[in-house]
Amino acid sequence: MNGFEIILPFLKPIEHLILDDSISEVMVNGPDRIFIERAGMLRQVQDVSLGEKSLMVAVKNIARRLGDDISESKPILDSRLPDGSRVAAVIPPCSLSGVTLTIRKFNTRHFEMDDLIRAGTLDGNLADRLKEYVLARKNILISGGTGTGKTTMLNILGKFIPQDDRVLLIEDTAEIQLAQPNLVRFEARQAQNGLPAVAIRDLLKAALRHRPDRIILGEIRGGEAFDLLQLLNTGHSGTLSTIHANSAKQGLARFTSCVLQSGVDLPYRAIKTNIADSLNVVIQLERRPGRRYISEVLEINSYDPDADLFDYCAMYVHQGEKP
User: Fold this and answer.
1) CATH among 3.10.580.10, 3.30.450.90, 2.60.120.580, 3.30.1460.10 for 9-104
2) What is the C-alpha end-to-end distance of the chain, expressed in Å?
3) What would the pLDDT profile of 35-52 be if each residue is shown by its tens digit?
4) Looking at domain 113-320, what is its CATH homologous superfamily?
5) Is the whole-model pTM more than 0.85?
């Protein structure tokens, strides 16, 4: 059974949108305002309504089918379908416009670097440079906003990891598709049905006991950044991860903030020094209507505590713009 078979019985008015392979995301902003994303473009769907009560019932039934719950005491749902698609919902009173439901489809297509070159995401010279970074075991942070293609880029760079490397992949929700024969996958778990949560930090700490050659962390969101930094500082090279930020420099600042969220008492400048010593490359992805592209590639050299600045070399800047 694929994921959509679980939810379609409750969402008949938008079934055609969910089953349309050209649509990557379906967004319901209350019962009468429905939007879709197709080929990177957002547009509103006309003459489709779910009905307020029907939408609430649908979301509650979907939550139960996925082994979760949504109610006034737990108004936020964030679940994954068996095929990897995501279902997120927020209900009133936290959602002021009625039930908000977002279905983000899991892309089963295995993109290659040539696909990104044809799409204008990068050129051949930059593609070769990124491949060299992976083969040279550089620690790479992929930065960008929502929907810029961070996971796609991580997937593609992961394909350049040599087949004889033991790869340990840690994700909040399984999305990354790797084919290395010696691949170990860990996935975090939210607390539900009486089971305690298993956090990314717990899995990162466990990773060291499984002899990884490389560690891939799907996304840095909080205090796990400190645990990742510890791993990088103890000789674990060739790591790949992603982070939400609007520029490469903001990606470094966000990494620093996430380390601070760990609760570990470290001086701010000491954290930045450790990041500069451990992180080698930041790749920034941007999104414009109908297009995703690499806007910056920075090589991190060091950190100057007196000036409070990272010393980096801009190896690539889109259209000659300064980083």
Assistant:
1) 3.30.450.90
2) 47
3) 999 877 889 999 888 888
4) P-loop containing nucleotide triphosphate hydrolases (3.40.50.300)
5) no
